[in-house]
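To whoever is on call:

I kicked off a structure prediction for a single chain this morning and the downstream step that reads the tokens threw a length-mismatch warning. I double-checked the sequence; it's 224 residues and nothing unusual in it as far as I can see. Pasting both halves so you can look.
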Amino acid sequence: MAEGGSEPRSLRLLCLHGYRQDARSFRARSGALRKALRGCAELLMVDAPHVIAGRPEEASLSEPLEANAHGWWFSNPQEGTFSALEEASSCKGLEESLEAVAEACAEHSPIDGLLGFSQGAALVGIICALKQHGDPRFQFDFAILIAGFRSRALDHQNYYQEPIQVPSLHVLGDSDRVIPAEMSQKLASCFSEPLILTHPGGHFIPVSAAQKKTYLQFLDRYRK
């Protein structure tokens, strides 16, 4: 219960979808999570600013292609493609994506936390590092990173130079073939006190009874 005996307020989470998704498709994919968090947290979706052209040869490397596919940055700027496994010497699109998230934070203020999936979770990790360094655009208390990874782009490595102090919950699937669990573990290790939730499944948002309990226990720390 909140102070004075009233019910704790519902939290507001800004949600960043995966590569080759968009806000609408991610809302559909997160339906079970939204239902599990009803009354505890509201999930607000935001589109990545970069439209992805369909390239069939990419399908095995990343997310399934949505009808209205977007991405947060490209590891191959010339081809306009992205792979989490690529150690790119330069990337394209990150600054525009940071500004898009900043604008969404301002539009939906106050934002209590960020939730990201796959490439969206990798971006949340970068934003947490920026927040730690005093970036005034990002005002939130915690982060939930689902199937996330540490960006392997060379020009992103400065974001991981010191432990990130933002409270975080990291969700990873033991059978995830898109973002293997060890990649998510590596991102979690960039945080000072990460809470790690594992599940036996693949590249999706898990919402079993046990996982729902972990989400709710984590979020309850921030309800007032």
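Update from on-call: the warning came from a stale cache, not from the record. Cleared it. Sanity check on the structure: Residues 56-63 have pLDDT under 50 and may be disordered.
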